[in-house]
Amino acid sequence: MSTATLLDKLNAKLQRSDIPQFAPGDTIRVHVRIKEGDKERLQAFEGTVIAKSAGPQPSFTVRKVSFGQGVERIFPANSKVIDKIEVLRSTRIRRAKLYYLRGLKGKAARLVEIERDRGSSQPQAASPKQEEKA
Q1: Is residue 111 part of a domain?
Q2: Most CB within 10 Å of its CB: which of 20, 63, 81, 96?
Q3: Is residue 134 assigned to a domain?
């Protein structure tokens, strides 16, 4: 067997199927397993996805503001440290990487929320307009 086929089989075996679909701009809560001594607990990290990479070993970057200080954390998508991911809200963005949010704070860093079907990444209309009766 060639090395490429072996790597493809190994990557297919390590892929996680329980991770929901999300995109940059979405607010997510990542439950991370923390091991302290012989005990293990879950810690939630909630923030906005500012970057997401693809490929055989994808990762995503989550940013939050904690006590006035910006905190970013990069998670490998197939990591065993991640217990679960919850998608809290989706926003309308026009860029793949939201690094410009690093320089913004307060109301300037707000993103416009949209309703998105949790099964797919296609945006839904937030509130459909009713036809006017004439």
Answers
A1: no
A2: 63
A3: no
Which has more pLDDT, 71 or 130? 71
Phi, psi of 55 (to 5 degrees): 115, -170
**Rounded Cα gap, residues 122 and 118, in angstroms:** 9
Q: Total domain count for the chain? A: 1
Residues spanned by the domain of 95: 18-105
Q: What is the CATH number of the domain that holds 54?
A: 2.30.30.790
**pLDDT tens column, 28-87:** 999 999 999 999 999 999 999 999 998 888 999 999 999 989 999 999 988 889 999 999
Question: From CA 30, how far away is CA 45, in angstroms rounded?
Answer: 5
Query: Which helix (H) or strand (E) segment is 46 a member of?
Result: strand 39-52
Within-domain flag for 94:
yes
On whether the pTM is more than 0.85, the answer is no
Vertex 48, ends 43 and 53: CA angle to 5°?
95
Note the pLDDT of residue 131: 47
Q: How confident is the prediction for the chain on average, in pLDDT?
A: 84
Give the pairing of strands 82-92 and 123-124: unpaired
Residue 92 CA to residue 57 CA, distance in Å, equals: 26
